Amino acid sequence: MGRENNSPNSPTSTKKGAFSTLKSLGLLSCLRLGSSSKNVVAGTLTSNGTKLTAAKGVVRTEEEKSRHGVVKKEQAWMRNGNLDMAIWSALPEELLDHILAYLPLPALSRLGTVCKRWQSLLHCPLFLQTRAAETGSSSSWPSYGPVRYNVKMSEHGEFHWSGYCKSSNRWQKLPPLSLPCLAGKKVWSGAGGLLCFYNRDNMGRLIVCNPVTKKWRELPPMNHKWRWPCVTHMIVDQSTKAYKIIMAGNEAYPRNSSTYQSHGTEVYDSVLDSWQLSGSLPKDLFLDTQDAALHKGLLYCTAQRTCTQTSDALSAHDALIAYDVQSGVWTEVASQLPDSSAYQTPLLCGGQMVMVVAPLDNDGAEGRFYVLDMTTKNWNLLTIMPKSLHKKLGFWGVCVAHGNQIFVVADTSMLVVVYDMGDGTWRELSSHQADSTFHFITPTIFSPDVNAIP
């Protein structure tokens, strides 16, 4: 009879080492099998093996067994209270891939250190099919936003970043990206599982990347060389996975020209794989922020009106403008903003257009939030940040909206406070000092999607 090969490089040895690594990382608590595999094992395993949900019910813990008079009997897949590596390492690779597909996204980078096969897991067809089937369900990966990152690559050539996870209310380091093309690039926008990178310093091209599958592409040259693209916004069609990138700003240089043109707008269409020039801003308005909010095909932004001379001084008023993605036309929505003297961020929250007025400094007035009445075009005060949170927050970093909630993130401490439009309450959520190494923050929300195509 043949003898099992237990050399360090054998498949059996690799599997045993892999499961040992899983257990040491505490990842076995995340494993569960799909309904199609119930004839083998189904349910949730804890790292110490004391409890699991089997296909036909719950196996009680030792304390529960004692209370209910159940005779202690070790399960077939256990040995001395621990997982039996001899059994678990014999799982078919197809079943193992199916199990690993349910791990949380931050754990995937650690899996890649186990073996080369697990490193290529994200390209496995069964893994992609399993994750695709889970899209939109309660077990799908959560969204992360805002995003913090470093422009400078690590000594190993990796792009390091983290995101705020709403479901767990904490910052999480996301799997690093080993893509040399990202060196010096900044996260400029993102949507539908994709991130858009741009190097403003050398007017370089845009890079679009799926951080989960690690696939990326460099977009073709734009029609303009942008000196300051005030708005870069990505829109993804979830049904077709096609996407558009809207680039707009106040100063753009046509190719092979040194004379800039103001109020430029151009749009990249992934279906056509080209940039198209689009409508210009009204001549008396200039974009003054990169923040934008998309609602029913309209991209809302703030703009500054050209200063006008009065009898005593110059006066200027900010305005809310919108870009129609379908027609490519800019229009003025509201001729005034709540407070033209402060930094203002448009957000779509709870189906309403909200303007966030950030405080000028920590000693000034608290942040204020207004809702736009689409009929009268008037701004109505929604809420004022409590003084206690205002003092703790310090200088604001970014504001993002998730559903009915508005998240405000501190620039340095990364303290996060949230306002819930549903019940009108404020809460302090999280601060993670370990993430202070990430020097750049963007309001981009990253929603992992294995089917997103750069």
From TrEMBL:
Pfam families: F-box-like, FBA_1. PROSITE patterns: FBOX. This is F-box domain-containing protein. InterPro entries: F-box-assoc_dom_typ1 (IPR006527), F-box-like_dom_sf (IPR036047), F-box_dom (IPR001810), Kelch-typ_b-propeller (IPR015915), SCF_F-box_component (IPR050796). SMART domains: FBOX. Residues 85-131 form the F-box domain.
